[in-house]
Amino acid sequence: MNKLSAYKGRPGSLALRIMVDLSAALTVLVLVALVGYILYKGIPNLHLDLFQWTYTTDNVSMMPAIINTLTITFCSLLVAVPFGVFSAVYLVEYAGRGNKLVKVIRLTTETLSGIPSIIYGLFGFLFFVVALGWSYSILAGIMTLAIMILPLIMRTTEEALKAVPDTYREGSFGLGAGKLRTVFKVVLPSAVPGILAGVILGVGRIVGETAALIYTAGTVTGVASSLLSSGRTLSVHMYALLSEGLYMDQAYATAVVLLIMVIIINAISSLVAKKVAGKAA
Amino acid sequence: MNNSFKEKAMQLVFLLAACASIIAVILICVFMFGNGIPAMSKIGIVNFLTGTLWEPFADVYGILPMIVGSIYVTVGAIIIGVPVGIFCAAYMARFCGPLQYKVLKPAIDLLAGIPSIVYGFFGLVVIVPIMKDIFGTSGKGILTASIMLGIMILPTIITVSESAIRAVPESYYEGSLALGATHERSVFATLIPAAKSGITAAVILGVGRAIGETLAVSMIIGNQAIMPDSILSGARTMTTNIVLEMGYATGIHRQALIATGVVLFAFILIINLLFTLIKERSARNE
Amino acid sequence: ASLFTACGNKSDSSSDSSGMTGEISVVSREDGSGTRGAFIELFGIEVKKDNGDKVDKTIKSAEVTNSTAVMLQTIKGNEKAIGYVSLGSMSDSVKALKVDGETASVENVKSGDYKVSRPFNIVTGKKTNAAAKDFISYINSKEGQAIVDKEGYVSEDATDSYAKSDASGKIVVAGSSSVTPLMEKLAEAYKKVNSDVKVEVQQSDSTTGVTSTIQGVCNIGMASRELEDSEKAKGVKSQEIARDGIAVIVNRSNGLSDITSDQVKQIYTGKITDWSEIK
Amino acid sequence: MIERNVMDKFTINDLNLYYGDFHALKSVNLHLPAKEITAFIGPSGCGKSTLLKTLNRMNDLVEGCKITGQVMLDGGDIYAPKTDVNLLRRNVGMVFQKPNPFPMSIFDNVAYGPRTHGIRSKLELEEIVEKSLRDAAIWDELKDRLKKSALGLSGGQQQRLCIARALAVDPEVLLMDEATSALDPISTSKIEDLVLELKEKYTIIMVTHNMQQALRISDNTAFFLLGEVIEYDKTDKLFSVPSNKKTEDYITGRFG
Amino acid sequence: MIERNVMDKFTINDLNLYYGDFHALKSVNLHLPAKEITAFIGPSGCGKSTLLKTLNRMNDLVEGCKITGQVMLDGGDIYAPKTDVNLLRRNVGMVFQKPNPFPMSIFDNVAYGPRTHGIRSKLELEEIVEKSLRDAAIWDELKDRLKKSALGLSGGQQQRLCIARALAVDPEVLLMDEATSALDPISTSKIEDLVLELKEKYTIIMVTHNMQQALRISDNTAFFLLGEVIEYDKTDKLFSVPSNKKTEDYITGRFG
Ligand SMILES: Nc1ncnc2c1ncn2[C@@H]1O[C@H](COP(=O)(O)OP(=O)(O)OP(=O)(O)O)[C@@H](O)[C@H]1O
Ligand SMILES: Nc1ncnc2c1ncn2[C@@H]1O[C@H](COP(=O)(O)OP(=O)(O)OP(=O)(O)O)[C@@H](O)[C@H]1O
Ligand SMILES: [Mg+2]
Ligand SMILES: [Mg+2]
Ligand SMILES: O=P([O-])([O-])[O-]
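^ thats the input. predicted complex w/ magnesium ion below
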């Protein structure tokens, strides 16, 4: 593809090309090493026992954790996505451009995205678990995670909304459509792929989160029977297995399942994105 | 009439949603500041920020080593992660064929989805021994953590930069080619500068991730609460300080840990403010 | 070098064949952790000042971790490292050293020959419901303590058998991650004898266990340390349900198999920095 | 001069418009007759688009845009507080310089307006879409691909689609801002023919750079310079015997 | 007919171009004289831009674009494997339909090309920038704001800046693809004047929709239809006595 002769007399371009290729190779290498490591450590430890319906200290099943992960991921998105998207709509479509308040919101939300999750966990514990009296429950976990990914969803949605050409808005207004209709029928649909990218990042954070959940959703090993009962996600499960060094093997097996789950969730998301984008284009 | 009512109602809903975000922000701030500020004032802000000793058993709380540790590690992560990330984003947006892209794109999404605890163990089992053999130290330390974080911020930087580069009008690229510039020069001298605001956003997000990362770092940095004297020496960051001791901390010790979180918050706020200022200045120049 | 004589008489130990040299990588647990507390106290790393305050003399350059798994992995991966870990978490991947000639084992802890151990406490508040009381009585029963023994921890003396009460309902046990594995075993066994009470075990950390008890979020807290006075003032009290021995561990390739408590102290206070100084 | 007339669609009285500090329209007085084509011409930046936008209040969207004076549509002030802006924009349709179809199917594009205004019945929508596309002289080209995305059309087709979209809400006025400048001569010619037909039913106001175009199809022409109306007259008259020296200079430039 | 000549800049022999299955250029044979202005006219989609792009191989960027036949520049086949494409594009500059200045300062825009080709000396760059801006007849307007962003310029200024940018690398040929279609008449006129001046030193090939423009400034005109060259002749001749019926139809259409 890249004939070396094309770079004759252009050492700068050649150097850039090498850097680019190296960086891409390095990224792939890192991924291969990571995935290889997980598979190498985990696959030999994958047993059917790990997928029984109930957890005991003998089978160390991760099945309840898998179910809880799906529940918590879904419900957190259910809370965070509407709030995040609506906030972004307000910031981009309704608030005036020079609005100082908007700047403050943007700054603080962005800042929140760098706060370590243990702080969210402690906050969630004091606020949802204790003050609101929800005790250790996946609801407390869901709300904490929703707050945690809110800045992410808001930001990506904001960027996606800003990227929608003004001509669409003008076209819609020009037909006598109100702001609301313009936003829902023209602007938001065009922004869906961007919003979904934010959702994917959010899912990544939810699925990978531990600290914020330990203090809120708790670490009960069974399937949460209601929103107000406790349950652990796969990551928490893995963390719990690792922490005392007693179940290292099972923890690695969990990592494999976690990896597969991330792959599946990503694949579904990008499929949805394609579908929506395909409908628009 | 019915319509205009709906308009008003929904505008209110949007406003309320935005307010909910603000309320969440405020709640967390209240929680952090409420717990952190009393400790800071008891310890003395200056002592707290500039003290080099962290001895909870003696009620001595100085977090300068952690501040320095956080800065070292974050800068290290940027030095390692940002160039690789941007080059890789350029590769994905402008150099690779559709086949390579099909492989690379999900791979990078996958990198983003791997929990940090897995990164941490990977670092502990794979990177630490390598560093140990190369440098003859214990293998844990600032450099190791920087490499790990450099890797962990890659997906963020690559994803956001790639879409920023893709968003640059094709006409810039064509204009450059038509002047006889090579493909590489066209990408790096026109597309990437034109995408700089998006790339800056990517870097900010990456910095946020790096400075806020806890679990993985705590496994491979050594966590010594001392002023680091080289990039190979062990160190403790603000986040690892919090997560490390929170489990047993009570009273003022606990508050001091949350106060560390407040300082972290202030740090990220300052970084974001600086970036905003730079952005606004460069926007004004245009 | 002065230590040379201190342990030179133990000709049967393999220490002289160790041939280890190089800087010692000292690994410790985080400040405040129960494991670290017991460790520094028993090895005299913690010094009492005249005014009664205690000072932790652990050298500042010691690596710190708050996770047993990281401790094990670190020692496993670094032949020059030394650390300590709960007996219940000991694994073959590392080597436990005899301390002053005594093997780190449950029997030795129980007999008092091996001194390094820490308590596993449960914490209860003012209002402990019947179900919680029933579970606690199970833990303290012969049957309960048999499980403690079986899981490799040091049991308390127990004479009474468990007698099922008519208590029922759900109880939440929350706190220390170190106590959690044992508590899970206890809860499972308890379920077999009293299925009317459902026990949920929440693993986090000792402080959260105590806080949760104070806040009424859980019925029973778990802590691997003693309660602070400030916590007791809030109306909770603790009770020891088991002890956990603490083993001093090194890399498997380390030729050493025996260490004196004084050497441990010297290493952790930075007086000894090289393996060659230990013979 | 064009006589004021009760039949005038728009009457603009002493209109001033500011973008922040910038005075973009200066005391504009115009009256635009119904069912005729009025062209706005003038060099770039003279305020043609700005004036056009004031006629359906699209300038409301521009931050920092202030207005004094009056714009009357059928005798009612469109800037009065009680004006329903959405209704106004429904009555005063707009076609933009760059065709801007929505990223949805051709059918949905045309049906967007009617749906906005509450028409839900499928049958009715189908009728409206067909009629609008026929009126926009593009039905035959598109009738087999109504479900396809509008973004796949050529520029000329997109522009006619946008016209159809505007017609579908059944407006009284059609504003066209350089609606053909992005198109090739054949597409342009089609759209000019279309505009001449539409004149039967609609009042049309168009901005154009192309003086031949103004000459070819418009009834009245207003010439703008730096935010002022320099001359406003019957098109034939303005191009043949301009009464103002500046107008003459502009139209007799080498582009005349 | 225009005689073939050894002085011809470009000689195109039996050129066919396919976008995938679509046959966009059909057996094109043309020879474009040096230091003259050649115009390509024809309805939209007839292949004007496509042919223009083959002349500096910008079509290399289009996926699935295949070529047969020959394009000779000064007697050398530009599609030969050993051709240095970057050098070719340096010699054959291009100005696009929509002005596309880079988002950097005016100075940096013009200096971009020279810097690309290794000129680093500040003094030398300043000289080149001034000369190019002078040649593009825009020096006086911009000399006080060279450090300002080029995006702040008006459309006409931007387009002349893009011409200056193309001139700064000292090309032999200038390709212009509807370079004035986005501009107002005054800017257009300035650029036309400029092109006529540039003819002294450069070979210019331009695509235009505007037949008056072709007539006003070009020496030769090629008329395209559906990917074929229908007629190629001296401009005067082609417009006054077209030899092909189709040409006549096109230029005597209502747009003639
Ligand atoms: N949103 C805005 N903010 C500030 N100034 C503006 C804005 N829109 C237009 N202007 C200025 O107002 C003047 C009139 O602009 P307008 O777009 O109406 O010109 P025009 O006659 O349509 O020109 P063209 O033929 O180039 O489209 C110009 O000087 C322009 O720079
Ligand atoms: N990248 C492409 N892929 C497929 N077909 C293309 C591509 N580019 C152009 N075409 C087709 O090739 C034909 C010639 O296109 P070209 O852009 O050369 O036309 P043109 O004469 O420049 O038209 P216009 O005056 O509208 O610019 C058109 O039918 C067009 O649809
Ligand atoms: Mg305009
Ligand atoms: Mg073209
Ligand atoms: O370390 P812990 O015993 O507090 O979990």
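The longest strand of chain C covers residues 237-250.
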